[in-house]
Amino acid sequence: MTGFLAELGKKVAERWVALLVLPGLVFTAVAAAALVLGQRDWADTALLWRRLLALTAAAGAQQDGPLRTVVVLVGLLVAATAGAFVARALGRPVEHLLSGRWPFFARRAARALTERRRGKWRRLDREYRDALDGGDHPRLGELAEARNAVALTEPRCPTWIGDRLHAPARRTSKQYGLDLTAAWPRLWLLLPDSAREPLTESRRRLDEATVLGGWAVLYAALGVVWWPSAVIGLVVGLVAWRRSRDAAEVYAELVEATVDVYLHELLERFDDETRPVRPARGKTVSERFRKST
């Protein structure tokens, strides 16, 4: 038991360093450079080096130099951790932005973008159905891929990520008549660890991608003092967006696959007539979960 707790503590410490301390130290270093250089001397590495040497010499000349060094290191650690917590807090609004849950003042833009995506999806869907009805089977794969690149279902969000995360609920509702929002907590309780672990890991990757977006916001804000930081923020933001798309794709696919594989166990738990899975059974179970509310 002691060995298990020690190993668990080691893993927690490693994760704390990887997710909080290291990114925070990098940001703290960039922030310090920004404050020293400013906009006028943004590329003056000689100035930065002189300031660093002066700081080191001043610390070494004092009798309490070692104590000052410890205080500086503790201050850096505190600043890095604080920056990491701010970035994680900003990860939530970044997730809302990427998933299409925009604030009230952006609703008009959200509606316009959603309508634009919906119009494109409907046009591509018509082309696909026309080819299907006309027997043009060689083009079906290409047309389906083009339509699904916009969204797997008719868009209801201004962003691709938002529609991708909502797609499992819409697709399983159409296929099984299941209210996934009501059914998911019950289904989760029935899943074995082998099914839960990939879901948890994929969700963690999505959260980490949005936290990276939080770091992008911090770097962009630092651009007010030192403009190269805004460029760093832009690059980090693009990486966060790309990772969020990939993570959302994996997570949504796993959620839908989980329903496909384990839905019969859920229905067996709540209804004796479970095979074959029919929309009527899914609707009946959904009504039971909602408890007529």
Task: Describe this structure as you would to a colleague.
By secondary structure, this protein is mostly helical. Among the domains are: 67-100 and 160-270, no CATH class; 107-158. 81% of the residues lie in helices and 0% in strands. Helix 1 packs parallel to helix 8 and helix 8 (193-222) runs antiparallel to helix 9 (228-270). The longest helix is centred in the last third of the chain and has 43 residues, at 228-270. Keywords: Membrane, Transmembrane, Transmembrane helix. This is Vegetative cell wall protein gp1. It comes from Nonomuraea maritima.
Show the helix and strand layout.
Elements: H1 2-37, H2 45-61, H3 65-98, H4 107-133, H5 140-150, H6 160-176, H7 180-190, H8 193-222, H9 228-270, H10 279-290
Helix pairs in contact: 1-3, 1-8, 2-3, 3-8, 4-5, 6-9, 6-10, 8-9
Transmembrane segments: 16-37, 70-91, 212-241
Organism: Nonomuraea maritima
Keywords: Membrane, Transmembrane, Transmembrane helix
